[in-house]
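Prompt: May I have another protein with tokenized structure?
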Amino acid sequence: MLSGRFPEEWLLSHDLIEGAYVRVGLASDIEIYDEFPRDYMSYASRQHRWIRGDWQIAEWILPRVPQPGGRRGPNPLSWFNRWKVFDNLRRSLMPVTSLGLLMAPG
């Protein structure tokens, strides 16, 4: 369903952008258990991958987004989906912001 919607090799597989394009519903009563990483390096690697994916879709908060072939076109996402992308970006900045505030002279 998403063939031809994004530039080739542009995005990691990302549930948020894919779900926004195909207009999936929200099911908040489903529980998925994911094993916590066994060490800090595994945790940091997973966080880096997730945050990198969030920043790859950052342009989808704008009115015009990348299209196949290098052109830009109108953003088909709703304002609510754009807000979800923005919120992921905001959350990705929280750890570095918290560290900065801890290190700031008081």
